[in-house]
## 1
Amino acid sequence: MEKKFDDYPHPAVTVDVVIFTVKDKELKVLLVKRKNEPFKNKWAIPGGFVRMNESLEEATKRELFEETGVKDVYLEQLYSFGEVDRDPRGRVITIAYFALISLEKAAQKLRATTDVSEVAWFPISKLPELAFDHAKILEYAKKRLRWKFEYTTVAFSLLDKKFTLSEVQKIYEIIFQKKFDKRNFRKKLLSLNILESAGKEKEVSHRPPQLFSLKKKIGEIVEILKVQD
Amino acid sequence: MEKKFDDYPHPAVTVDVVIFTVKDKELKVLLVKRKNEPFKNKWAIPGGFVRMNESLEEATKRELFEETGVKDVYLEQLYSFGEVDRDPRGRVITIAYFALISLEKAAQKLRATTDVSEVAWFPISKLPELAFDHAKILEYAKKRLRWKFEYTTVAFSLLDKKFTLSEVQKIYEIIFQKKFDKRNFRKKLLSLNILESAGKEKEVSHRPPQLFSLKKKIGEIVEILKVQD
DNA sequence: TCAAAAGTGTTCCGAATACACCCATGA
DNA sequence: TCATGGGTGTATTCGGAACACTTTTGA
């Protein structure tokens, strides 16, 4: 089983982050355009090598910050991809993460870097051809994303601290590409006992909505919505 | 973001497999006793280095086979662990998998290897102290296991091709440490439309039970049982 | 007074739960 | 005939789904 520590050559290890946001009533993903070979001028999921003195999550946060300038976003490990030939340069194992960032945070300037000529948000429905096995990674991320919306409270990480029930519903309608009944949606959301009242919105030219915020202590899994096709 | 391919030193990469079975009416996990430092004589989850010419899954299957002599078992990737100091020998990133093997397969002889002095099944309720961050990995695996039993048909990978409904129920009662109502359990299982009749058991000294087998084409996620505490 | 979005209740249906007795067989 | 596990039905409760109109505000 185990040999001495350095008997085997070591593969390279990268982290890749699938960064989602909701913008212009669409689910979007952040991609970068590669400046170098391989896959020069192809779009790719942002990522980079893991340094020896940082954990996988630290590496991912660093990449995320370098690419978007944002911190403190929803971040979770997705899956590790390790096919032998997934990178033509040699053996590279990647640990993929996925992140959800809110509209305001995402509105900050995106910055190209030394290895990237462009950075842009792509609607999930109109993706370009992707480098490496990134199409597969993205597929995986989309599945996970939907699952997370059904079974956990991640949706709220796309909203402000205070939000209206209609805003929550809109997010769900975008993610699931489906309309929900307003009364049932609100009833379900309120019955979960995860929200608390947070005053009223002002300065709208119609009936002002109630604001809510997420309660602090919530179990990890809260079956939010059962969505059928 | 990216530098030239070999600008960074590479961490070592291992795979670890949490191997579960149900034996003697208990959920058990396979552990190995380490022959060498670090953590000499401590119990650990079996695992080893990923070779340059094998994928993560291939490496895991190889380890699984070396340790238990079994092939063709349920295997899925669990999570990757990459804290900087998780291995005192240096930077080691591990991709953890979990496997479920059936009683008969598990009954084969377990074999010690060059780096392992003993191999043994431990009931999940009476675990020894574990090497590295393996306690954390095992915790993670236990959670995933329960989830899988609630939402998928993994349970059947612990049974023969043909099985009785009572056998299925026993497996669930062991995993969830909880009794289920026989009529409701059977009703639910049959209503899922995932089983087909496979004759009758013979040679039992009581009313012979119906046998069932799992239908071939089943969606990935079938909400089998909702289990409440 | 109008436009815009907020807010609200009831009926129906299907699934989950609780619960106890008879059946078929070999010993 | 007995011991052993196999097998079965009904009533109740709870949550999900369908469905349309009134309210509040600023412009």
## 2
Amino acid sequence: MSSKIRVRFAPSPTGYLHVGGARTALFNWLYARRHGGTFVLRIEDTDAARNTEQAMQAIFDGMRWLGLDWDEGPEVGGDCGPYYQSQRGAIYERHAQKLIDTGKAYTDDAGALRFRLPRLPLTFDDLVCGHMEIDRSKSQSRDGSPEADMTIRRADGGWIFHFVNVVDDIEMAITHVVRGEDHLSNTPKHIELFAALGAPPPAYAHIPLILNKDGSKMSKRDQGAAVGSYIDGGYAPEAVVNYIALLGWSPKDDSEKLSIEELTARFDFAGVNRKGAHFDLEKCNWLNAQYLMHMPMERYVALARPWIAKAGITADDAALTPVLALVKEKAKFLTELPEWIGFFFTEDYPFLPDAEEKLRKPGALDRLAQLADAYREIAAWDAAALEAKLKELATTHAVKAAEFVHPARTAVSGKTVGPSLYHMLEVLGRERVLSRMARAQSTFAP
RNA sequence: GACCCUAUCGUCCAGUGGCCUAGGACAUCGCCCUUUCACGGCGAGAACACGGGUUCGAAUCCCGUUAGGGUCGCCA
């Protein structure tokens, strides 16, 4: 039996969790879950000056929101800890000493520790990019001189990314390094480091970068770049996971909507593209609406809860569920919910200008009164009966149904747009419908 | 500058030599459904970067050009 797969996501807490990072984490997670491996979270906080507590929290929050749980790492522990590089100094010291003892590293004039690059031709097989052959002797610095020996420890004692990254991958027994393509060109150096440290290199899978829709590099400021913007924007996490999975990976058939279980079952590196993916928020939004529209009611209520509470609406599940069911396929984002359902939970709902206009139209109040009279007497208070009665009334008075529909809708909701009228009336109940109609009549009477 | 990766509709993908007069999805534009707004249905426009090869045959293979991206840090 082959040794157990161990992958890791190694973010640096210097900003917000970026969608690119989230996707790297997702691909690692998917690969681990698919093959029964271990997913490690390691915080690469060697640059004390740039790390922030806030960024660290954003990483944890973002990953948890996306459902990417880690088997080893901060807050969960594990056998290879600590999982913060800032706490692993002794380990790095030990490996650096090994390099110094074997003449593979030396201290330069400025006091920094440098790794003597072998600069030999080298090959490796990337799970995504294929067979790579690199002539290291050809590598040059920007000024045309041969590539300088890599610094592994600063003069001030701070450790450098490439070195600690490799040391930790050895110490944590990482078998597959899945990371952004920006590291493809760094991989030869990393392999040289593995060799110098006497460890076999892991398998590599370099996944394409995520660019803006216009092809420019996606920066933190760009819309949709920060995972936090989805949390705050009222997205369903499963939709965001689905969307970013499709950025650079394809199930090879025309499936678009894939649950995290399906993603786990179908993910492999053969399906990962080599071309940089352009980020399209519109499609992400569409997918989000699809998820919102089709998810089970219980899940919908759970996701909606925080937004409802934030708007000051207090209602138990029994009261909330039928109301949310009315707008589930209408709202594109959870953030819109309070606006859609607010009038269900207060008698003091506002009348929007266009709604008011409809109620002030000549005859509108008369229709409202006629409808209220008919509804007061109706036997069964359900959508079908309500609709039949309204249409019957329209026929009796020889007018279009719209003559009754608009006054009714605006009177009970204060808006011109909303859920299906009859279902909305059914949920509101006879008592509230009649009192709202009466109130509208007195409010808008000339 | 050196080295590396990439190149199909505006965007995400399918396509691994003949099934391609290139398929799906988002977006756009029509029409239908609906007397709200959405959803949904039907349809339209929209692409193989360019130039050479290889082959009976190329979106698919090779070379070059161009373009985009990446790496070459005492950032990660």
